[in-house]
Amino acid sequence: MKKSVLALAVLGAISTGAFAQTNVSVYGLLDVGIVQERGGAAGSVTKLTSGVGAGSRLGFKGTEDLGGGLSALFVLENGYQADTGALGQGGLMFGRQAFVGLGSTNFGTVTLGRQYTPQYLTVAFVDPFGTGFAGNANNILPQTGNATSRMDNSVKYVSPNFSGFTGEVAYGFGEVAGSTSTARQYGLAVGYANGPLAVRLGYHNLNNGTAAAPAIGTENAKNTLLGATYDFKVAKAHLAYGVDKGLNSSKYRNAVNPFTGLAQSGSTDSTDVLVGVTVPFGAHKVLASYIHKNDKTANNMDANQYALGYIYSLSKRTELYTTYAKISNKNGAGYTVGGAIEAGSGDQAFNAGIRHAF
């Protein structure tokens, strides 16, 4: 018994010493709401679901001061379904983020692991709905990376802030034997913020080639998005323009068209326009956006999304929300109204729920 107590005391002393040198914090978010989806061939569905406005998560992050302006850092972020307790991101333990790196106050930060693509962060920056709720811009704007918004096996560099200018570049290894280009992807972004104006340009390139048929890679998926916001205090304006070229450059969130039951792959040549507004007043916030997809292929499968939302802050950590969005599909297009983590099953959806950050 005495040996056990002594062992626990030693372990406690070691743990205390380790955390005294490294700043480690635990954080998270719970988002649960009622969702009603309409318009799909299978009929309407009403459900209680998790991750409507933002994916529910549990994360650990930390930094260690190495001296001379240099620090080590890490993030491990798990995604889960608060309505069922199941793991998110296909069952990955830390499917949202998992990376480690070094940061310098003078030279920027280098991180390695599973991370967000610069182009996706550009979408999140300009979208009034923050790529969540029924009004999620990614219902129409393409997601990049590993079919979502992240890159596995990636190295990312983020620059310091130079008088309002920032930049980042990321490279994801394909890790296919015999081919350094197969499944390879890379992206970059530059931004500028000064007073009420903020601008960001993001780009992503995904190699579609395979080791067996590298010629497919001549149609790499290329996504470019320019976004800007301007804060008028009484309201913030959002504006974005995107260009999507190549195979898989504008994939649907559903592999099967929920209106026809047929397989679908998305446009290989399209442009996107987003116009939105955020209106805050006290504890209230009103969100609205319009998105147009212009399919420039012979199929001409255009789409328009209209979205409206309302958020009420009960405190700095707890919010109530309700949002609605409608998509008008043209010529058999299969765009659907989903949320932060779900693709949706119809051309319109309503949600109402609560989220709490800790």
TrEMBL record:
The GO terms this record gives for MF are: porin activity
What GO cellular-component annotations does this UniProt entry give?
Answer: cell outer membrane; pore complex
What InterPro entries does the record tag this protein with? Gram-neg_bact_OMP, Gram_neg_porin_domain, Porin_dom_sf, Porin_Gram-ve, Porin_Neis
Entry keyword set: Cell outer membrane, Ion transport, Membrane, Porin, Signal, Transmembrane, Transmembrane beta strand, Transport
Q: Name one GO biological process term.
A: monoatomic ion transmembrane transport
Q: What is its main location?
A: membrane
**Residues of the signal sequence?**
1-20
The entry's localization annotation reads:
Cell outer membrane
Domain Porin residue range list: 7-331
Question: Is rRNA processing given among the entry's keywords?
Answer: no
Classify the protein's membrane topology as the record does: Multi-pass membrane protein
Q: Name one Pfam family in it.
A: Porin_4
- CDD domains to which the protein is assigned, alphabetical: gram_neg_porins
Highest rank taxon of the organism: Bacteria
Q: Does the keyword Cell inner membrane apply?
A: no
Q: Describe the protein's quaternary organization and the partners it interacts with.
A: Homotrimer.
Its protein name is Porin
